[in-house]
Structure formats: C-alpha cells, structure tokens
Amino acid sequence: MSSMIQGDVLIKGGLLVNGEGITRSDILISDGKVLELGPDLGRERANRVIDAGGKYVLPGGIDCHAHPIFGDKIDTYSLCAAYGGVTTVHAFIGSETHRHEHFQNTWGIREYNPDIVKGFIEFAEETSYTDFAIHGLITTRDKDDLDRVIPDLIKLGAISFKVFMTWNPFVTDTDAAYSNLMAIPDDLLMRLMHTSANEGGMVMIHAENGTCKAYLEDQFKGCGKTSPEYHLKSAPAILEAEAVNRAATMALVTGSPLYPVHLSSQEVVPVLNHYKQKGLKLWGETCPHYLTLTDDMMLKHGYKYKVAPPLRYDQDVDAMWKGVTDGSLSTIGSDFTGYTKNLKIEGSMTGKVIGDAKEPDPDNLNIFQVAAGLSTLEFMMPVVWTHGVNTGKITLPRFVQLFSENPAKLFGIWPKKGTIQPGSDADVVLWDPSLMQTVEKEHGISDLNTFEGMELLGMPTMTMVRGQVVIENGKVVGKQGRAKYAPGNPDRTSYAQHGPATDSV
C-alpha cells in the first residue's frame, strides 16, 4: 500500500546525516513534509526526482542568533541564510525594535512588546525567503509591564528572552539614557528569570560586566586611547566569565534555565561546566568568528572587525572548539547584524543610511564610537564545515547537532524543525563536500563581509524550505511570501520536564 503513495519530491542517492550518524537514504516529500525515508524508494513515487549522489543531505540549519534591526531586514538577510544552508532564522525582536528608523515603514512604531512581535511576524511572513522564529528582546523599557509581557510573548511562541548585562556598545557619552534602557540591572534580571521560569521560558544573556566595561572605556577615552587595540582591552575575558557566573547564580536561585550567547573566551568554559555539575539547566552558544578569527584581524583591518564580545586570542579559539566538541557549548549562532560600512562607522542603531562612508583615518578613529557587529550568516555553516569537519575537530553528526538539532530542541520547535524524519518539515540542504569557494560579497546589503577572502571547501548546492527549493546551484529559485512562523512550544524544549530527548545537546 505504501508503494502507491505519491510525493511531490524524491531526493535520491544521498547520505543522510543526523545527530546519531550517517545513512544512505532516499527522502520522499509531500505537501511540505517528510513523508518517508528508505534506502531505495521508487522514482515513480514523486513528481520530481533530485539526484543527491555524492552529496550529504542535512536538515536545514537554524540560526539561533540573528539581528534584523541594524542593516539587513529579514527580506535580505533570509536570502543570505538560504544561500548558506540555513532554513530557519531566529530573530531578536522586542521593546527597542520599534525605535529604529529603518523599520518605521515595515512593522511600524508600536509601544507594547508583544504588539511589536506581532507586527514583525506579519512583515516576515510577507518578505522572508526562509521560515523564522522569535526571541523576545527585553530591556528596561519593559520593567513596568514585565508580568504581562512575558506570558503574552510565550502565548505568541516567543519563549526565550534576551537581555544585556552590559552597556549598549553603539552609544556615545551623550546617549547614556538610551544605554541604560538597553542594559538591565540585576534585580530586574532576577525578576525576569522568576517570571520566565514560571511560564516555561528561558533567559538568554549577553554576558559582560557592564560596570567594569564602562569603567575601562572611560579610562581609555580619558587619556585618548581610542585606537582599535583598546576595544579588546576594555572588554577582557574575565568580564564575560564574571557575568556568566553571576547570571548562573541568579538562575539557580530563581529556578530558571539559562542560555549565555556568543561566548568567546577560555575563561568562561569552566564556569559553564561548574554550574552544569550543580544541576543548572544551562546551555552555551558560540559563533563562527570566535572559532576562526582572533584580535589580529582587528589590529590589521580596524573597525570592520569590531564585535561584542571582541575577537580574542588563539587559546580562546582553541577553547571554543573544545567546547563545541565536548558539549560544554551546545550551539553555534551567527550573531548577524548586516551592517553597511556607513552604518558601522557612524555607530548607528537607527538603520538610517547616512550616505557614502569614507574609510576612516586610523589616526583619528575612535573605536568606541563605531558600531559592534559582524556580517556572518551566509558563510557561517561553510566556515565551520571547513575549519571543523574538514580538520577533524568535529564530526558530521556533531555539525548537525550544533546547527540543527540542538537549536530546535532548546527553543521548542523540535521535531517540526531541526531534523529529517517522517512528519517533520521538509527543510533540507544538499551539501557538496568537494565544492570550493573563495568568500566574496554576500547576498545581503552589507559591504563588510567578515570572512572575505577565506577559502572554503564544502558548500550547499540546494536549500529547500518545507519542500520548496529556494536556492539551487547558486541561483534564487524560491519566492518571498511563503515564509511561516515557527512558534516555540515551552513543553517541547530541552529544559521542559517532558521535552525531547537531549542527548545531542
């Protein structure tokens, strides 16, 4: 009887990779879902047969850390995602998003955090090339409404909430009030943890000690030390480790799961492991730039490589690789901003295009007035493949865990996303391990490609979202307006009492 079932697409002859291993399996897709897996499914069972011989077949990547508020909107950065094998982008949306001039004509100026999220969902479904999920962005602006903001966001499927433990890296001295709205004090963080935990949510933290960082910046600026080297010196690794330690203590007290993002230093790994041993539900994220780049890039190329936390040293890169290998770290996110040169030089959070930006004079550049953020999304997975899978640092199944399975489980969209199995969305990437590419310009608006000039071996040749081909052999064949929101389910997370299996995490 099953042999008579017809599908829309049959992917045939590829090596299917999941978190448990690699198998030779065909994939039958119908109505946007995976219908059947098998070693030799008949070609007559589908309207289209895709030959995957010589290629790996991976579940679509999930970028668990993207910012559609600084340069690229989701219409352009989702195209970057699809080119890079990412089929679901997890965007930070919240109480400050509506203040950005770039979006006044997209989802409008709205005051209440969940209303802002609703507006973004409407906009993204009309313009994105990929599916999407949402992290709530919580700032001091939400303090009076927090007890209703969190339940309302969770009802919308935004079940994870990011906060800043440091000052906003984009502000100047005259913008202190705005800075104070972005970073939240410890008492508000504990209140958020308590409220979120009671509702089934998880808190995400940008972990840097804001008081120490502000003190060091003021010291350097006061004596005219504003060249690029002082960005790293103003944000030493101990500030990251201290903030994670402090937040983890609060999480233990409040019973909240915790997810520190874009971790960068060898000092932070023992802190993670210490609190995991104490039973804290704790997961960590790093980024492709912390796995491949060091502070030498900023010393050589200047403002282009300013990011928060900063690029560090070889030993920190090694520690991040060890973390993703041994499970101390669970995910890799892009932390994508998509700045153009002019936006980055001007330190703009408004998204307003100011005109052509000239290369700054290195002798007069104030690195503390330059925006922090990198354009990393499109080449995130190929970079980690090249420097991780090809070098033997991580296995192919671990690659899938880090980019697909773990984010889906952590944020409550498993098994709809993050896997290729019957009933899951047919988010599929065909990956050619022999395909070489030298990184040039991305397909978004940024003219500051972080990995420009890097030689990569192993690239996606086809990206499929819910059975629809979006990218095929380097060309856009999909359409906007087919995107769907993937709401998180707090009962299906890795930290839920009866959530999905978490062995891969």
From TrEMBL:
Stored InterPro entries: Amidohydro-rel, Metal-dep_hydrolase_composite, Metal_Hydrolase, Metallo-dep_Hydrolases_sf
Segments of this protein annotated with the region Disordered: 480-505
GO cellular component annotations of the record: cytosol
Family: Belongs to the metallo-dependent hydrolases superfamily. Hydantoinase/dihydropyrimidinase family.
Cofactor(s) this protein requires: Zn(2+)
Listed name of the protein: Amidohydrolase-related domain-containing protein
Organism this protein belongs to: marine metagenome
TM helices/strands, residue ranges: none
